[in-house]
Specification:
- This is cytokinin dehydrogenase.
- One of its GO terms (molecular function) is FAD binding.
- It holds the Pfam family Cytokin-bind.
- Residues 54-234 form the FAD-binding PCMH-type domain.
- This protein is of the alpha+beta class.
- It folds into 3 domains: 2-107 and 488-516, Uridine Diphospho-n-acetylenolpyruvylglucosamine Reductase, domain 2 (2-Layer Sandwich), CATH 3.30.43.10; 111-233, Uridine Diphospho-n-acetylenolpyruvylglucosamine Reductase, domain 3; 237-477, 3-Layer(aba) Sandwich (Vanillyl-alcohol Oxidase, Chain A, domain 3), CATH 3.40.462.10.
- 29% of the residues lie in helices and 21% in strands.
- It has 15 helices and 18 strands.
- The strands form 3 sheets. The protein has an 8-stranded antiparallel β-sheet.
- Strand 8 (187-194) and strand 9 form a beta hairpin.
- Helix 12 (389-400) packs antiparallel against helix 13.
- The chain starts with a helix and ends in a 17-residue tail after the last helix.
- The model has no long low-confidence stretch (mean pLDDT 93).
- The protein binds flavin-adenine dinucleotide.
- Flavin-adenine dinucleotide binds at residues 49-50, 86-93, 97-98, 108, 134, 157-159, 162-163, 165-167, 169-174, 218-219, 223-224, 479, 513, 515-516.
Length: 523
C-alpha cells in the first residue's frame, strides 16, 4: 500500500524512448480482437473537451461493441509498460478529466443502445427502473422513458447532453437533488469493468465496496458499462417560476426553507437559484431573469439601496395537463405567499415536462450559433457549507464577481442526508449541518476574445479559491481539478486513505482515468 501511495503523480521514471513505446503499444492494440474498432488517427473530439483548456493526444480511440471489448482493452493496457485507459462519456469535463495522453480513450458513446425499462405500473411507479448503458446520454434516456412509458428518472442535471457513466462518476445534481439526492443516490445496481479487467455486477448488497467506490469515483476504479436507475411517474407539465431578491440572507432563508419541506405534492418539485448583476447588462443582468420574451424585468421594483448583485430563486411545480390554470395559480400563489421576494419581480410559465428538462438544449443551440458553445469554458463548481455561504456571497458575488462572469452564477441549497457517505463523493464538513450550497460559475466567452481572456478567467477562479481559503471558508470543489498529491489529500480529507486503498484494490496498475491526475501509472 505504501509503495502504491508513493506512486502518486508526478512520475519520474520515463527513461524509455516514447516513440518505441508507442510503436509497441500500437502493435498491442492491433492484436486486440475487438467486436468494435480501434482508430489511431486521433484528432478533433478525442483530444479535447468542453472546457477547451487542455489538449492531449491519445494513442488510439477505441469504440467498444460491449463490455467484453472494454475488458480486452484493459487487459491489453495492463500488459504494456505505460498504457493508460480513459472512458470518455460525452467529453463535457472542463480540465481534461476524460483524456489519456498517449493512452487509450474508450468512446463510451459507441455503446449507447442499451435502454431497457422495467415498469411495474401502479399509482406511484415505485418499482420501476431502467437498465441503461454507461454511454447513453441522459437526454436520450429521458425521451425513451417519458415517450415510451410515461416514466422518468427522479434526479437530473440541468443539461442532459451528458452520459450516465460521466455524471455517476461525479454526482449529478440539479434542482431535484434536495428531495432525491444526486443521481448517484438514485442508482441501485451497476455493471463495472474494473481496472483488473473483471466484469462485475455491484449494488448495496453485491460487491458493495466496488459499488460505492465507483459512485462519485472520478473514473478511478472501473468503467461503468450499465446502470440501474430508479424511475417515477413523469408529470405532464411544469409550472416554472422565478422570483427576485435583493438581500442574499432572505434569498438563502427562503431557499433553505423550501428544500427542507420535501414532501412530494406539498412543496415545489425543483428548487435552484442564481446570482445576477444589478444592471441592464444583457448577459449578466436583469434581462437574464424573465422566462418569456414578452416578460419585462421592471427595474423600478428594485429598492434604490440594493447592492451590485441580486438573486433569483428558480422553482418548479409538477402539474397535470388538465389542471385548471385558475386552480394552479391559486396553489402557486399560496406556496409563494410566505416568501420575501420583490413583489413585482415574479415570472411564471407553464411548459411540458420534456420542455423543462431540455431547457438548456435551446441555450446550447443558440450558443452554438453564436460561437460561445465551442469557445473555452473555465468553469468552477463548489460545494460551500451553510455556515459560510453569507461570507461567500460577500467575498465572491458582491466583490470579485460583482460585474458577472458572462454566464450563469448558480447558488442553491442541497441536503446532506440525501447523499450516501459510503460513496467516493466529497462534501464540505460544515459541522455535519444538513444544508450546504452548490455554487456553479458557468463562464461563457466569445471565441474571438482569445486565450488571454481564458487565462484571466482561470486567474479569477484561483483568486476566488485563494480568498475563500484565506477567509477560512469551508468548501470543496465539485468536479474537482488538482495537480498535486497534497491538494488531492486535502480534497478527500478523511476519505483519502480509503480512496487510495480502493484504488490499489480495483485498479492496481493505476490504468484508469489518468486525466484526473490523481495517481500515476505503475510501470
Ligand atoms: P466525461 O467528461 O466524458 O467524463 C468525466 C469523467 O468520468 C472522466 O474522468 C471519465 O474518464 C469518467 N467517465 C466517463 N464515462 C465513464 C464511465 N462510463 N465509467 C467510468 N468513468 C467514466 N453536472 C451536474 O452535476 N449538474 C449539472 O447541472 C451539470 N450541467 C452541466 C452542463 C454543461 C453544459 C456541462 C458541460 C457540464 C455540466 N455538468 C453538470 C458537469 C457534468 O456532470 C460532468 O462534467 C460530467 O462528467 C460530464 O459527463 P460526460 O459524459 O461528458 O463525462
Amino acid at each position: 500500500m505504501i509503495a502504491f501511495m508513493e506512486r502518486f503523480l508526478p512520475a519520474n521514471d520515463t527513461e524509455v524512448n516514447p516513440e518505441d513505446e508507442d510503436t509497441t503499444n500500437r502493435s498491442l492494440c492491433l492484436s486486440l480482437e475487438l467486436q468494435g474498432s480501434v482508430d489511431f488517427i486521433c484528432t478533433g473530439l478525442a483530444c479535447k473537451d468542453f472546457g477547451g483548456i487542455y489538449y492531449k493526444k491519445p494513442l488510439a480511440i477505441i469504440k467498444p461493441a460491449g463490455p467484453e471489448d472494454v475488458v480486452r482493452v484493459i487487459k491489453a493496457a495492463s500488459l504494456s509498460s505505460n498504457l493508460t485507459v480513459a472512458a470518455r462519456g460525452n467529453g463535457h469535463s472542463i480540465r481534461g478529466q476524460a483524456m489519456a495522453d498517449r493512452g487509450l480513450v474508450i468512446d463510451m458513446r459507441s455503446m449507447d443502445t442499451l435502454i431497457h425499462v422495467v415498469a411495474t405500473y401502479g399509482s406511484t411507479a415505485s418499482a420501476a427502473y431502467v437498465d441503461v448503458g454507461g454511454g447513453v446520454l441522459w437526454e436520450d434516456l429521458l425521451r425513451r422513458c417519458v415517450l415510451g412509458f410515461g416514466l422518468a428518472p427522479r434526479s437530473w442535471t440541468d443539461y442532459l447532453g451528458l452520459t450516465v457513466g460521466g455524471t455517476l462518476s461525479n454526482a449529478g445534481v440539479s434542482g431535484q437533488a434536495f428531495r432525491y439526492g444526486p443521481q448517484t443516490s438514485n442508482v441501485t445496481e451497476l455493471e463495472v469493468v474494473t481496472g483488473k479487467g473483471e466484469i462485475l455486477v455491484c449494488s448495496e448488497n453485491q460487491n458493495p465496496e466496488l459499488f460505492f467506490s465507483v459512485l462519485g469515483g472520478l473514473g478511478q476504479f472501473g468503467i461503468i458499462t450499465r446502470a440501474r436507475i430508479l424511475l417515477q411517474k413523469a408529470p405532464d407539465m411544469i409550472r416554472w417560476i422565478r422570483v427576485v431578491y435583493t438581500e442574499f440572507e432572505e434569498f438563502a432563508k427562503d431557499a433553505e426553507r423550501l428544500v427542507s419541506q420535501d414532501l412530494e405534492g406539498e412543496s415545489f418539485d425543483y428548487v435552484e437559484g442564481f446570482a445576477f448583476v444589478n444592471s441592464d447588462d444583457p448577459v449578466n443582468g436583469w434581462p437574464t431573469v424573465p422566462l418569456l420574451l414578452d416578460q419585462r424585468f421592471d427595474p423600478t421594483s428594485i429598492p434604490p439601496n440594493a447592492g451590485p448583485v441580486l438573486y433569483c430563486l428558480e422553482l418548479a411545480l409538477h402539474h397535470h395537463i388538465h389542471d385548471s390554470s385558475t386552480t394552479l395559480d391559486k396553489v402557486v400563489g399560496q406556496m409563494l405567499r410566505p416568501l420575501r421576494y420583490c413583489r413585482n419581480l415574479r415570472f411564471e410559465v407553464s411548459v411540458t415536462y420534456m420542455e423543462f428538462l431540455l431547457r438548456v438544449k435551446q441555450v446550447e443551440e443558440a450558443a452554438k450559433a453564436s460561437g460561445i458553445w465551442d469557445a473555452p469554458h473555465p468553469w468552477l463548481n463548489l460545494f460551500v457549507s451553510k455556515r459560510d455561504i453569507v461570507d461567500f456571497d460577500r467575498i465572491v458575488f458582491k466583490n470579485i464577481l460583482r460585474d458577472g462572469i458572462g454566464g450563469p452564477m448558480l447558488v442553491y441549497p442541497l441536503r446532506r442526508s440525501k447523499w450516501d457517505i459510503r460513496t467516493s463523493e466529497v462534501l464540505p464538513e460544515g459541522g455535519g449541518e444538513e444544508i450546504f450550497y452548490l455554487i456553479a460559475l458557468l463562464r461563457f466567452n466569445q471565441s474571438e476574445r482569445g486565450r488571454a481572456v481564458v487565462e484571466e478567467d482561470v486567474a479569477q477562479n484561483e483568486e476566488i479559491l485563494r480568498s475563500c481559503r484565506e477567509n477560512g471558508l469551508d468548501l470543496k470543489q465539485y468536479l474537482p481539478h488538482y495537480t498535486t498529491k497534497d491538494e488531492w489529500k486535502r480534497h478527500f480529507g478523511k476519505k483519502w486513505s480509503r480512496f487510495v486503498e480502493r484504488k490499489a484494490y480495483f485498479d492496481p496498475l493505476a490504468l484508469l482515468s489518468p486525466g484526473q491526475s490523481i495517481f500515476s501509472r505503475i510501470r
